[in-house]
TrEMBL record:
<dbReference type="GO" id="GO:0000145">
    <property type="term" value="C:exocyst"/>
</dbReference>
<dbReference type="GO" id="GO:0006887">
    <property type="term" value="P:exocytosis"/>
</dbReference>
<feature type="domain" description="Exocyst complex subunit Exo70 C-terminal">
    <location>
        <begin position="7"/>
        <end position="193"/>
    </location>
</feature>
<dbReference type="InterPro" id="IPR004140">
    <property type="entry name" value="Exo70"/>
</dbReference>
<dbReference type="InterPro" id="IPR046364">
    <property type="entry name" value="Exo70_C"/>
</dbReference>
<dbReference type="GO" id="GO:0005546">
    <property type="term" value="F:phosphatidylinositol-4,5-bisphosphate binding"/>
</dbReference>
<comment type="function">
    <text>Component of the exocyst complex.</text>
</comment>
<keyword id="KW-0813">Transport</keyword>
<dbReference type="Pfam" id="PF03081">
    <property type="entry name" value="Exo70_C"/>
</dbReference>
<protein>
    <recommendedName>
        <fullName>Exocyst subunit Exo70 family protein</fullName>
    </recommendedName>
</protein>
<comment type="similarity">
    <text>Belongs to the EXO70 family.</text>
</comment>
<keyword id="KW-0268">Exocytosis</keyword>
<dbReference type="InterPro" id="IPR016159">
    <property type="entry name" value="Cullin_repeat-like_dom_sf"/>
</dbReference>
<dbReference type="GO" id="GO:0015031">
    <property type="term" value="P:protein transport"/>
</dbReference>
<keyword id="KW-0653">Protein transport</keyword>
Length: 210
């Protein structure tokens, strides 16, 4: 915070803000122990969000800290959520680009089926790994969990729907299309609902079938 912002605050408020700053510093240090960068960002998001909710839930704490600093904390956990999405989904969405799929020559031009098959295989493998892993991660706050799922869907689903619409016919006209197109759009929408529940995918499937 700017020094001018702190000058007007009473000693108890300054002490409380200092405690929160130290807590964030310690959390940041612990997050670096995670080998998975996406999980490190999720850890920070969960914990800073918890602090924000505790402050919002207490009129006394909120008045002491002030709305300016509360907005800074809110920005902190939202930045962690953005960092998580970048770390997790940029590579997955990169599979759904057009570049590298089109061929042109003196005798033919169009889509390279071999490159397209590899692209679908890469997407399937990456999404399966993210789905399997991140279903076991937990976001305890229901609203935050739902907000992050919606944000994921808003980026993933339109990109996959568009890619599938453009290139499905090239795969389905070849042999064993089921080896490459493993997901319908609806399959992905359903899979995103498994994220951040804190249990393996197999348990989610059983819940949905009950």
């Amino acid at each position: 915070m700017e020094f001018a912002e702190l000058e007007s605050k009473p000693p108890l408020a300054l002490h409380l803000i200092w405690i929160i700053v130290i807590l964030q510093f310690n959390l940041d240090g612990k997050s670096k122990l995670y080998k998975d960068v996406s999980l490190a960002h999720l850890f920070m998001m969960n914990n800073v969000h918890y602090i924000v909710q505790k402050v919002k839930g207490s009129m006394e704490l909120r008045e002491m800290i002030g709305d300016d600093y509360l907005r800074k904390l809110t920005g902190k956990f939202r930045q962690s959520a953005t960092n998580y999405q970048r770390a997790t989904w940029v590579g997955v969405l990169y599979c759904l680009r057009d570049e590298g799929l089109h061929v042109s020559g003196s005798f033919s031009s169009g889509v390279s089926k071999s490159a397209l098959r590899e692209r679908f295989k890469s997407f399937n493998g990456m999404f399966e790994e993210v789905h399997r892993t991140q279903a076991t991660w937990l976001i305890p706050d229901t609203q935050l969990r739902e907000e992050l799922r919606i944000s994921i869907s808003e980026h993933l689903i339109p990109a996959y729907r568009s890619f599938l619409g453009r290139f499905r016919s090239h795969i389905e006209s070849g042999r064993h299309p089921e080896n490459y197109i493993k997901y319908s759009v609806e399959d992905l929408e359903s899979a995103v609902l498994d994220f951040f529940e804190g249990c393996p995918v197999s348990q989610h499937s059983r819940k949905r079938s009950q």
